[in-house]
Input
Amino acid sequence: MIGTPEDAAFALFESGRLAEAEDAWREILSRKPDDPDALHILGYIVATTGRIGEGLKLLDRAVQRAPRVAGIRSNRAMILSQAGRNDEAERDIRRALDLDPRLPAALYLLGNIRSSQGRFDEAVTAYRRALAIDPRMAPAHQGLGSALLRGGDSEGARR
Output
């Protein structure tokens, strides 16, 4: 049984029912306009459904309300990176990792940014750090193999 409106909204989000989750989080924000969790999740939903500018505004508000929450910064960095704003994304990644050095999503994203910059050794390091924390993180395995291959280590990429 789902207890609070937040629980119900989060269940919709986790089940991939994003339109319904968006409506639920907007309803929560109408009652609690400064709730950092609602701002965070709604911002993420909005941005990943193609409304990056609106999503970033919500994520910015979430960061203002909860500046020490690494997950908000990490998700904001992901959206910034998808928008091609890697310098800003990297600042958020660094801040997220300062707050929680064991955040595999931030390390994975850092690996992606380094790889896109052709800095394959740094990408490999970031992916390996992510995998040391979460060895089942399939995208990090893929990123690691790609960075090794693109960096000239075809033998390492095969392993």
